[in-house]
Amino acid sequence: MEVYADKQEGTTPESREPREVVKRHVAPIKDIGRNVTTDRFYTSVELVEDLYERKMTLVGTMKNNRKHIPEELKP
Fold first, then answer.
1. Using CA atoms, how far apart are residues 20 and 26, in angstroms rounded to an integer?
2. 36 versus 6: which is more confidently predicted?
3. pTM of the model
């Protein structure tokens, strides 16, 4: 578990990104074919691609105005 407390000593802006938080949390179960479920704050196309490389899948909600959503997925 990670408690979000805004900027913490010893962290970089990149390490606080939602995608990086999820990747840290799933590190112990990578490469064993698990599914990750996220809410709209954590779900992104980039995260799906990162998890797929680790033999994982993702189910999550996503607002249709997020960056990098392929046009064919918006309708």
1. 10
2. 36
3. 0.77
